Amino acid sequence: MAKYSVILAAAGASSRFKDAHFKKPFALLNQKHVWLYSAEKFLAHRDVIQLIVVVSPDDMADFRSRFGANIAVMGFDLVAGGSQRCLSIQNGLKQVSADATHVVIHDAARPCLADEWIERLLDAGAKFGAAILATPVTSTLKRSVDSKTVAETVSREQLWQAQTPQCFEVNLLRNAFASRKEEFLPTDESQLVEATGAKVSIVYGSPLNIKITTKDDMAFAAACLRSLPTPRFDAPLHPFQDDNLWR
Question: Model's pTM, two decimal places?
Fold first, then answer.
């Protein structure tokens, strides 16, 4: 039976969010702090045995002050992050329970999760050892050299936009971190695992699973929360078996 520890990444600088009072994971969305949406969702899952929230060392005292009651009631572990995302996740990985078979990593700034997406992702992680949520790229892609003019149009064929959560067998992820060269700073954990030669399975995600980056994203996130689909309990595990996983 697979058991999952979840690392919630909330240690970023939120430089593009431009809020004097809150970083994006801690901002209010429909009168609820952004990070709580996914934290509560994971803790409600029957096979999740641990939640680890990783925040910047500069935010530790403020987080404890604001969310001390949540820490006590929800029972999660609070960990100080590093200067880069991969270092923050590595710090969280050190605190993973010895009883966990798999680690799930999720961006705290992605509040719009449906239970069925989580279920399919965890099932795929247990089956294949490494799995991510992703959506196929549908827009026309342009490459620019000087950020002012188009240099070329890039084929979108077989391109996917990675999301979180991402799920990995514990030792696979630990070995990937252990083999990382210091100058290699992956932008997600899948890239780190891919570098070892391991195969990562794609689980179909949703455009509703947005990552909040700017203040403008907050209104869209609120709309996405209202639009989360009703899961079909007879939906297949693998997305390519059925393109209509949602009513």
Answer: 0.90
Which residue do the tokens 């891919």 mark?
Answer: 194
Sheet holding 160-169, edge to edge: 77-80, 48-55, 4-10, 102-107, 160-169, 130-136, 201-204
> Do residues 166 and 105 make contact, with C-beta atoms less than 8 angstroms apart?
yes
Contacts 24+ apart (CB under 8 A), 34-38: 34/108, 34/109, 34/111, 34/212, 34/221, 35/8, 35/10, 35/108, 35/109, 35/111, 36/70, 37/111, 37/112, 37/113, 37/225, 38/8, 38/106, 38/108, 38/110, 38/111, 38/113
Report DSSP letters for 143-179, one per residue.
E-SSSSS--EEEP-TT-EEEEEEEEEEHHHHHHHHHT
Among candidates 221, 224, 205, 223, which has minimal Cα distance to 213?
Answer: 221
Q: What are phi and psi of 67, to 5 degrees?
A: -120, 25
Nearest CA-CA partner of 80 in 58, 62, 64, 103:
58
Give residue-wise pLDDT tens across range 47-90. 999 999 999 999 999 999 999 999 999 999 999 999 999 999 99
Work out the percent of the chain whose per-residue pLDDT is above 90: 84
User: Which residue segments constitute the domains of the chain, with CATH numbers given?
Assistant: 4-238 (3.90.550.10)
